[in-house]
Amino acid sequence: MSGAITWAPLLPWPAIAALGGAGLVLLILAAARRARGTVWRALALILLSVALMEPRLTREDHAAQTDIAVIAVDASPSQRTGERRGRAQQALDALKADLAGETDLEVRTIEVPGAGPDGSEGTPLIGALDREIAEIPAGRFAGAVLITDGQVHDVPEESADPPGGPVHVLLTGEHDETDRRMVIENVPSYGLVGKEISIVYRVEDYPEPETGALAGPPARITLRRDGEVLTEQEVSVGDDHQITLTLEHAGPTIIELEAAPREGELSEINNRAAVAVNGVRDRLRVLLVSGQPHLGERTWRNLLKSDPSVDLVHFTILRPPDKDDFTPLRELALIAFPTQELFEKRIKEFDLIVFDRYVVRHVLPPSYFENIVTYVREGGAVLVAVGPEFSGLRSLAQTPLVDVLPVKPTGEVVEQPFRPRTSAVGRRHPVTASLPAAAVSPEVEPAWGPWFRQIEGLAEAGNVLMEGPGGAPLVILDRIGEGRVAEVMSDQIWLWARGYGGGGPHAELVRRLAHWLMKEPELEEEALRATAQDGRLNIERVSLDENPVTVTVTSPSGDARSVELKPTRDGKSAASVVAEEPGLYRIDDGTQTVLAAVGALNALELADLRTTPERLQPLADVTGGGVHWIADGMPGLRRTLPGRDSRGRNWIGLTRNGAQVVTGIAQVPLLPWWLVLPLGLGFLGIGWWREGR
Q1: Global pTM?
Q2: Residue 201: what are its φ and ψ, rounded to 5°?
Q3: For 644-679, what is the HEC assignment?
Q4: DSSP codes of every residue in 452-483
Q5: Upper half-sphere CA count for residue 439 (Cβ side, 13 Å)
Q6: 3-state helix, strand, coil in the chain (%, to 5)
Q7: How do residues 74-90 score in pLDDT, each as one tens digit?
């Protein structure tokens, strides 16, 4: 409780001053004339002036306020290293026990996870502390205790406005910790498929126990591309090194560098570093060779030319070279057919060769077809669209190319209306699964238009994706060595392009065929994929096999677990699991391995796992706090007065602010009216009486 005199004037201060001034002038004149009663009139003037200012005695009642302390616990991924989490919990329990008897102290505990997806972007411990302190009323902050490994990534360089209390740091790790990490210094974000890219990397050891150096003995590193080991070699530690590799496919390629463990290091999790390089294809080179003229000849050309990423070379062969009817050469062709240039010297420069109703006219000798077979086996792609000539003596099946064709002709041609159907395999294969207006089951008729001709053949290899009359193979895909082959056993796809009978998905079908032949990852019929989103790992497997699948998921820290995939649709099965750690996950189904990055591929949180006081020491110094290692023993806890030391060799202090709040106010007038009125009249009466004497 406290008291003070306050003023509550009945008139504005200028009016009181004017009245008092006028009275003072009259008193001065009376005193100059030596008038009797002047003293009593002065007393009356003073009394009335003070009464107009209405003095009051104000009394305030106060209540003591509890101080507020904050305990911030680092729960970021780096705290999973060694015994740090256990020590953090022990320190938290000890602090709460010590503070339980402080009746004038409120303790607020906050847990701070890592920032970004699954903590991959560092530990924002100071930001969380600032937000908590901002909610504490002024004068009640007693101090803060940070339980952390010191790897905090939002410490300001200079604290312009430090909190109004000490900030203490309790470190959860050990002194002189050693660790090894892989650092990728430079890598391109994209590269051309089939071309080499260079990566600059470095292996760092932190630190040598005796010398404190960042380098150590040579380290053995392993380079992986999409989980496949490419090379292993020994490199010096602390120096930059360059390594080159080739991108094999379009889309993301995950490149992983791993250094062998170092004896006594904290964790192997940051011995690995990974990057995703996006593979892009240069302009695709396609060779289209047309033979027998037909209504759909321009359909293939138009479809391939409509793709801006395709460089198309198109030749139409209408007559054999030995036919001579004296027609001028300039009327036979715009240019001579460069057979030797295309099929001997530069055949490997093409990504895809298309034969559209090709008729053997001895333009290409058998040796060139043998070159095409070799081209396919070594990774090339051939698409054959056939017509009735495929069943005759001038068929491609009568050339060495027959060795890579999955369907051999029977010699029969079926000419009747039919609607192409996707087979059981085709409904699971990405090339034909979910084609627009396709039938979802064999009993349902597809909604696209009919064809009128099918060349009969026997499928001796590959996968039949679409069928014609009687289940005859219509669209067939096959893998030959490193390459791929597709056959379309009809020349009627142009009917869909013209919209006959409602048309059909001709453009989408041809696009998918061409991209499958050129090894587009999204169209692989046996594929395992994994993506990370919102802290979950989404796994998807595409397969022509209907059997259930169980995959093994290996976390960045090496923990493995089995996950069963549930069938969905279109040959896919999927599952979604919680991804608790940031970093690179490995998913294996027994035949394929895929990698998925949760958060940043090279998480800031895991870049350096050593416990360090260096980042938080300046903040502790500027606020009067201390830094202590839990491994050396818990410091004692004291309450200190403002302005006194709040840290010691083996103790930390929280300020006792003594904050109070006003709970009540009472005001008593010092000159009530019942006192002012008789006193004023009495002074004036005495003054008149003295003047009358």
Answers
A1: 0.65
A2: -140, 170
A3: CCCECCCEEEEECCCCEEEEEEEEEECCCHHHHHHH
A4: --EEEEEE-SSEEEEE-GGG-EEEEEEEETTE
A5: 17
A6: 25, 35, 40
A7: 988 888 888 889 999 99
